[in-house]
Amino acid sequence: MDDILIWGSLLLVGYVAGTIGSIVGLGGGIIIVPALLYLAHFFPPFRMVSPPMAVGTSLFLIVITSLSSTLSFHKQKRIDFTSGWLFFLGCGPGAMIGAYLSRYLQSNFFLIGFGLFMLVISFVLVIKDRIGWMRYTGSQVRTHTDPDGYTWTYGYNRWLVLGMSFPIGILSGLLGIGGGALMVPIMLIVFRFPPHVATATSMFAIFLSSILGSGIQAFQAHIHWMAVLLLAPGSWLGGKTGAWISSRLESKHLLRVFEALLVVIAIKMIYDGFTL
């Protein structure tokens, strides 16, 4: 009975993380990491899951989720591969550095820091739809025509993209979150990406950078392979589901629920960090 409960819980966590992560371009690690840490308190097989191992496991699973989403987004012709590779050039090396630094995480500081970071993410997600578009004119000008026939024009400076994506990569590898929580708002607010293109391109860049970051985590033995096997099916299906929902429905209401969920989880993690 306990084995069925464990399998069901992790399958659900993987599916929810993959679905929400794919819809909003986050990658899903923001759900997987705290879920693994709390499941460690209830299921004996996962009591060895430390913060570095939760981060490493999450980063490996983001590879699966983002690959699933990327394949679906590619069929929908929503990925700007040129921009995605550029963001990866900054995020990839950063993810490797962050993955290495995650070995020094301590439980209480990690919980507090991760909780505060989640509050920042929830705030960014709230304001990103309310901030007027910045009139940034970059050296690289791109265009995209959406299914409704509207043509979007956006642009960026390559060095600015590299400079902004490198620290995002460090946070991605350090916290096991994928980095889309910061990458997508930057694409939307600073570079005026079309929303659907920003989400899809972010997932492509996350897929590439997470491969490098999870490689470092595997080398440090920070991946719980049993959790990977149990979470992976749900993450893959969730990635497909999120891409499907994103192409057909407005995600504003789901985002509001997600933002509220982030705040609740963040407060709980900060409280636990101070009371350890």
From TrEMBL:
Keyword Membrane part of the UniProt annotation: yes
One cellular component term from this protein's GO annotations in UniProt: plasma membrane
Membrane spanning stretches: 12-41, 53-73, 85-102, 108-127, 168-191, 203-232
Lipid bilayer topology: Multi-pass membrane protein
Signal peptide: none
Record's keyword annotation contains Transmembrane: yes
Keywords: Cell membrane, Membrane, Transmembrane, Transmembrane helix
Protein name: Probable membrane transporter protein
